[in-house]
Amino acid sequence: VDDISFEVAPGELFGLLGPNGAGKTTTVKMLTTLLIPTSGTARVLGEDVVHQAERLRARIGFIFGGERGLYWRLSGNDNLRYFSSLYHVDPAVAAKRIPYLLELVGLADRAKEKVDGYSRGMKQRLHIARTLLHDPEMLFLDEPTIGLDPVGARELRDVIRDLQAEKKTILLTTHYMFEADALCQRLAVINKGRIIALDTPAG
Predict the structure, then answer these.
(1) In the sheet where 138-142 sits, what is the strand order?
(2) Second label for 95, Cα 20 to 30 Å away, from 75, 126, 170, 196?
(3) What global pTM score does this model have?
(4) pLDDT value of residue 65
(5) Can you say whether the dihedral through the CA atoms of 173, 166, 8, 183 is positive or negative?
(6) What angle do CA 98, 99, 104 make, to 5 degrees?
């Protein structure tokens, strides 16, 4: 990416819109401490992404498109119980939070089924539930609907709207113009590593 600059307000659903290879995922990986920038600075929730990376990781959640990262032989409920222990979520808190999250992502009625039998869209919704276990202050969604059928994509967009209604701060990347228009309050258009527009979808 080439000298990009933008801010996301608390409680805002901000979009990064651009074609494949534009620099969206690279930007998200830098902001979530997975890539170290070669120059410049970036802060998320006031934390420097390089010098305060460990502290920042505890405060954010991120999802990259795809089905990896779940245990398919376990149920949706058992996946969340396992990951809550990895995130050091207090067991008493997890016991209340897991049913809430399964309801939020529309999987409460399938919670006891093995993930192996889930559709791709259901797996992606379970990814969102997993990412929310430790109640992160900011959520990064990198092309979460990629590869989903129209029904699965629509259901996932509904979940994202519900998260935004709860005033979660969200950075969403997508290469679908209609998706950015439907979900984002503001968006930056990125192409070949540069931001070429930054405005509300209507603007």
Answers:
(1) 60-64, 138-142, 169-174, 13-17, 186-191, 194-199
(2) 170
(3) 0.92
(4) 67
(5) positive
(6) 95
